[in-house]
Amino acid sequence: MIILGIETSCDETGIALYDTERGLLSHALYSQIKMHSEYGGVVPELASRDHIRHILPLIKQVLHQAQCQLADIDALAYTQGPGLAGALLVGASIGAALSFVLKIPALGIHHLEGHLLSPLLSTPSPQFPFIALLVSGGHTQLMQVDGVGQYQLLGETVDDAAGEAFDKTAKLLGLGYPGGAALSKLAEQGRPGQFRLPCPMLNSGDLNFSFSGLKTAVLTLINKSEMNAQVRADIALAFQEAVVTVLTEKSLAALSSADLDRLVVAGGVGANRLLRQHLTKKATSIGATVFYPQLEFCTDNGAMIALAGALRFQAANKLDGASTGSFTVQARWELSQTIHNEQ
Ligand code: KG4
Ligand code: ZN
Count of domains in the chain? Predict the structure, then answer.
């Protein structure tokens, strides 16, 4: 079964073809980051228009790369939410239109489901059940994943997401948008132990997170320090260490409370090198294994949506019902409330 995956929830147009027999056939991504960085953040209207410009050429590109025709596609999966409504509508409408003309089913996928299943694109891939740490620009959650569609929320951020905290702190340090990767690069020049920032909610006794206070602590530090290139790097390192410590400790606590020994890390912040080092070291010391998506599948991409669609279609064990041409998107959508509209 060949699934075309379409991701347009934010500022990346991601398209992929996934074959349930052969795995990922091809994928392509167009990032709008350059366009939005001029404004210091994503401009929703510009994002929607840019998805319109790139989505069809990217679909042609993945078909060409995989040496497939439109007629070879058995089903479609598109991101139904959460995300920017206008951006989601581009992917959903193209998905529904293709489904209508090709007379194949289309499935709306929850963006976070895509992220948390993305390590299954790599080998070795984790067996169910596992704990997933979802750390993206919009979400920070610990989930217990017992199977496809069986997700239990164990804890989440009560304010900013980890990626959001990276982006806001990067902005305070004069780095561009999105700042996570740039901050992490700057932190490599930082001197350990120069500054210590609080590790919010480290000992809260639950699996929730809070990152907005950390950003404020960085601002206070910047205001009272004599700033230069080295101090900026020192602060970046202290910030990164605080976030990584909290994410690592809470992930280990989740593993132990669920009595599981497999941890999956997904979402853009999962690309962070220090986080990977700490998690792997700490998890290994308690006999647990950590699974990461390949770096290119940490941030938004079409492959994770195609894969989630394939697993959903396989779990339902049916491929019937071509689209009537109708579709919906959900800008706000809890993963625990996933309703799947097979069209
Ligand atoms: O998953 P994603 O591509 O988009 C959302 O669904 O939000 O995640 C984007 C987030 C941004 O906040 C970005 O700054 C962060 O992931 N990010 C990083 C790194 N690479 C991307 N944060 C820390 N370290 C990185 N290396
Ligand atoms: Zn994402």
Answer: 2
